[in-house]
Amino acid sequence: xxxxxxxxxxxxxxxxxxxxxxxxxxxxxxxxxxxxxxxxxxxxxxxxxxxxxxxxxxxxxxxxxxxxxxxxxxxxxxxxxxxxxxxxxxxxxxxxxxxxxxxxxxxxxxxxxxxxxxxxxxxxxxxxxxxxxxxxxxxxxxxxxxxxxxxxxxxxxxxxxxxxxxxxxxxxxxxxxxxxxxxxxxxxxxxxxxxxxxxxxxxxxxxxxxxxxxxxxxxxxxxxxxxxxxxxxxxxxxxxxxxxxxxxxxxxxxxxxxxxxxxxxxxxxxxxxx
Length: 274
What we know:
Helicase, Ruva Protein, domain 3; Tetrahydropterin Synthase, Chain A; three-stranded antiparallel β-sheet; 48% helix; elongated
């Protein structure tokens, strides 16, 4: 039978269940509002919406790399106990399935609806907090890495031979690096101008307070800014496998070793609780 949007909305407001669940309940009960409400309660779905205002500070991360796409997802929940359950992991994989099947690139209502059955089952609020989707071109290697279920990384390396094991190992090492050092930006071009100006002002004040001559303050500040950028920008950070060189320099060494073009070109990072 046909179900009106008004009836679905009314049932949602009365039960807190998802729109799709309300529609299904009305269809299953031939439009009988009371029966539909009872049906949702029996299925444990009537309370799902009422949990939506609960804080979600725990959670887990999920990744997947296919031939042409790479996906990173963070789902939050209320307790780490739930985050470690098989049902929570199942929810994460279903969210990634939906992202790949429908071309989603950000959290949305459809993904939120998908979590409703798990919210009802696990009795905790759950939220799709982060969605990152990377395209993978024919000349790119993308590697995923998850640490302790709460840190997830994707790294993308552009190369002239995507089958080369040394290049793949470098891409994986970059993922380990990002998980360990958690860079804020890929490179200096991505650093927010306001943030950079704030740091320059702080360093200028600090240097002036040291009583340094005015004619050398600018040089000292420039050096401090460069050092700070090298700490927060991925390609400028000291490489996890060799702290004598930067990540960008490590890529050049791999290129020299293999005789291939090798360049780290992108990354994504998400950490539960941040």
